[in-house]
Amino acid sequence: TQSKPRQPLLKTALPGPKSADIIARDKQHLSTSYMRPYPFVPDHGEGVWLTDADGNTMLDFFAGIAVTTAGHAHPHVVRAVQEEVTKFTHVCLTDYPQEITTSLAERLLAHVERPLPGGNAEKWRVFFGNSGAEAVEAAIKLARNHTGRTHIISTMGSFHGRTYGAITLTGSKTKYKRGFGPLLPAVSHVPYPNPFRPPLGSTPETCAQAVIDHIESLFVGILPADEVAAIIVEPMQGEGGYIVPPADFLPKLRQLCDQHGIMLIFDEVQAGMGRTGKMFSFQHFDVQPDMITLAKGIASGLPISALLAKESVMTWPVGSHGSTFGGNPVSAAAAHATLDLLEGKVKHPGCGESLMDNAREVGGFILSELRKMQADFPFLGDVRGEGLFIGLEFVGPDGAPDGKLRDRASMAMFEKGLLNLDCGEAVIRVSPPLILTREEAETGLAIMRETFTELSADQG
Ligand code: PMP
Which of 29, 32, 73, 231 is the residue whose CA sits 20 to 30 A from 320? Predict the structure, then answer.
């Protein structure tokens, strides 16, 4: 039994000399498009702790953007990868079937296939890629191919990736699009029903219906519904600010899609794979899509993504779509190990029956503690989420999003050893590895409280 850190351990000023050297070389040689929210240079990790190039150990509250489900260097994941990598590292799934990817598909599908009236299970199929964007591209292609229609409807504030199809669908921040056009034709964006900032003059209670009405009004006056191949939506919006829609939104969207023969695609890249306390975030609502995109959390950090689609929908012809690296066996091994932990086949000490249980349990605790802090710090405008998918929105005295204050909070937390990541206009996401214990959560929450106390003293 190794002794785990209980508190961040800061040995140098930040950044320390080794980190500073790497930062300087990074600035010189790597893409000018990379963001660097604060001077952190990871060197190695264990569990929910990351140590930088100078030996400073910090608590990880963002998990490589909701990716490292089992934390860093989890022994069960490491063993699975080591075992697989000695067999072969690549053959090409597009051409040849392999046990490890076949059984991975079967395991993923077991979480979506539901019994139909009459007793048979509804069949689904899997296409494997490498990244979220690649899964989204596959979804666009499949929706068009299957329906023979071209138009795709997406939501404002959404994020779907940075390849051409995916950035076209992305509905947040013009920086993703400026100077890159022309983008994909035949894409429209509709508001997302954010209960904290209800769109279209609606209220938190009516915002879902308002968005549905808005789409229907497009069908009447602007966009023929029978030209719409798909509506793509994040069942809980990630990059846009960790937003949970009202319970009636997705069922109403399902109804609308059924009425018009439109494919409903749920982008579960960020909220899926147990993060919200259920395998997929849409499972918090009584609804079933036609396609699901997955990536990030599947393999605790090894690159793999998936498009899941109903068998009746995945009808594209042999050879029409593929990927050289997609479904890589080493990534698939890490995905199996991650599923073992998520499903509770392998237990992680201190995390209850499964990592999904733990996400619910510890996430619920963080959510309620942050809500208590709202009473003391009026700039914490909204605290929302499910499981370990939690958004904390900073607001100014007028209630408007306060991105500057959020940035100050983010930097101050880093300086105290709490790694965090922004999203939306003024949100900090809490998306730690799903192995976070309650004790570790308390450590992070204490740093947050200390930060907010300092910020409120500064505000005078
Ligand atoms: N969809 C969603 C919901 C995402 O959050 C992201 C990444 N933030 C993507 C797609 C794109 O994934 P990737 O960066 O792996 O291409």
Answer: 231
DSSP 175: G
**In 363-439, at which residue ranges do the beta strands (DSSP E only) sit?**
380-386, 389-394, 418-419, 421-423, 427-430
Cis peptide before 182 (omega within 30 of 0): yes
Cα angle: 115, vertex 119, 121; to 5 degrees: 40
Q: Report whether pLDDT(89) > 90.
A: yes
Query: Atom 13, ligand 1: which residue's CA is nearest?
Result: 132
For the stretch 218-231, pLDDT in tens is 999 899 999 999 99
**Residue ranges around ligand 1 (CB below 6 Å):** 65, 131-133, 136, 159-161, 234, 238-239, 267, 269-270, 295
Q: Are 58 and 50 in contact (CB under 8 A)?
A: yes
Domain of residue 328: give its range: 82-343
Q: Are 449 and 182 in contact (CB under 8 A)?
A: no
pLDDT class of 2 with cuts at 50, 70, 90: low
Q: What are phi and psi of 11, to 5 degrees?
A: -100, -25
Q: pTM of this prediction?
A: 0.98
- In a domain, residue 42? The reply is no
Q: Are 242 and 305 contained in the same domain?
A: yes
